Amino acid sequence: MSDDTVELEARLAEQDAFEPPAEFVEQANVADESIYEEFEQNWPECWERAADLLDWDEEYDTVLDDSNPPFYEWFTGGELNASANCLDRHLEERGDEPAIEWVGEPTDEDDRTYTYEELHREVNEFAAALRDLGVGEDDVVTMYMPMIPELPIAMLACARIGAPHSVVFAGFSAEALATRMESADSEYLVTANGYYRRGDPLDHHEKTREGLADVGHEVSDVVVVDRLGEDDHGHELADGERYYRDLVADHEGATVEPVARDAEDMLFLMYTSGTTGKPKGVKHTTGGYLSWAAWTSQAVLDIKPEDTYFCSADIGWITGHSYIVYGPLALGTTTMMYEGTPDYPERDRLWEIVEEYEATQLYTAPTAIRAFMKWGTEYPDDHDLSSLRLLGTVGEPINPRAWKWYYKHIGDESCPIVDTWWQTETGGMMVTTLPGVKTMKPGSAGPPLPGVDVRIVDTEGEEVEAGRAGYLTVNKPWPGMLRTLYDNDERYVDEYWAEYSDTDSEDPDDWVYFPEDGAKIDDDGYITVLGRVDDVLNVSGHRLGTMEIESAIVGVEGVAEAAVVGGDHEIKGEAVYAYVITEDGYEGDEEMRSRIVEGVEDAIGPIARPEQVVFTPELPKTRSGKIMRRLLEDIANGEELGNTSTLRNPDVVEDIQTKVGGD
Ligand code: WT7
Predict the structure, then answer these.
(1) In 162-254, which ranges are continuous DSSP H helix?
(2) Domains of the chain: residue spans and CATH
(3) Which residue owns the Cα nearest ligand 1 atom 14?
């Protein structure tokens, strides 16, 4: 390193506040700080600003109906269609402009561009096909698809006919697919025969069939996208299966009038992990969700129609729903999709894509940034990344070192970074700086967005002093919020509201939303999110329930009991640690270990694979018989343990420690 570079690194290491770059501010969608004050004064009417970004078939008459908390309703009386908002209304001005730039993983095939015109045409054709299959308004259509253009096409086709979609991440197991289809009473499935991962064509068709075999009700139709062509694993179509391309060809040129949906009608369901073994079906609506996705895309990601915006998430997660599909397309911009991993064929794949397409924004996860850091600067240095104007992160806390690396080596110190805190349930961003307005502080997401009331409180709900750790709460409703859990209003209230609300009250001021995150706030009102306070792990930005993993492990023959905790991991943020007690007559050996790993992969998917399986004769328990998870976490992290004498079985601790340390 030259002296200059050394000096620069030293300066960056010390700097803890960064002003938005002047060139960025000049062109920012939101550049006036007064928006915070204005939204506070004018709440909830301020949210008309979000609704105004959309075209409504029928004007709403009320911004917020809070007469029955926590069952809030937004933009009531309004009617709109999400597919028309993402497609039809852009045709006149942007019909020939790219809506989706898709990059497949193999480098020897052609990438695909869909203009708004082309996307509109195919969405219409597929919507007509779905209708012909019998899909009606409010029928839930499940999608178990990789990152191929047919996924957003299928989502928008469903939205067009008023059928909610439920997208299941393609990396989830067959069993996970079956559970989600059953829970949503979903009778239609759109899938693919496979996709490419690090050069290999994966057999997704087989996995789909295994999943379908486990669904308790009849699934009437299965649509298969042929992603693999000649690389297909030789499957013939079975009864009830049809190729996507045949359906679309049969409906060539068909148009489908977008169905006017009530603002509160369900746009989609998204399953996410909770504290119990059963995933929760988060319900998002047409008016509130879409306006939230559009407004935050505009204000935070600074999206403009002429941008080429790149979010590297998977559409199988909420980030992809809000910030690859709905937000960007509602704003009429060009959104990118990449099928593969960032290290295939080389570790510069993302930078190659950014350079080739002249991407203007990059939105990714801290886990990816940590991997880039580890790989070294030569990969981004090899490419011209000067098209980038803004960088974003999401999914987990980002440490200041990774933040600064991203700022310097990807953004060339000329792009603001937005560290956005939100969750599946919030529909879109909640806590982040506005990039054209606010100072950035690495490691802190920033203040809540204008109009968003987030507080850091103690167990009683009282706000804690600056610098103290507390719990993050949201004290006012917002348009993008989930409305309930599918078919389970009671669990909705229990999981998100019971902790901090007076649940007997009809006064919305008595209702407080609890996202289950720990956080602290500084004197400037900047929030640092510390992580989940429930039994949910965040592995590479993916949310996994410890109970889900435990029940998978206990399902393995010979396992008596299991406890799963998160241990710190340099790249993934957290890694899965499983402590297992075997049944009499079973050995905690290699064979058992691989059966456990397999069991978890079958039940959930490879993302939940335990990093370590520790066999132990006992689990540390309190006198009342509760497993001491905190202690198991400390052991996983090699931390000094506090007083263990209150345990019912203190002797077991040392034994476990030796096993973890010695592995
Ligand atoms: C959990 C939500 C948001 C879409 C992707 C994940 C953690 C999210 C941040 C951030 C610190 C974050 C929280 C949250 N999280 N963003 N910027 N800083 N933590 O959605 O799967 O619903 O997970 O991710 O713990 O509760 P999700």
Answers:
(1) 174-183, 204-213, 244-250
(2) 107-259 (3.40.50.980), 454-527 (2.30.38.10), 534-662 (3.30.300.30)
(3) 423
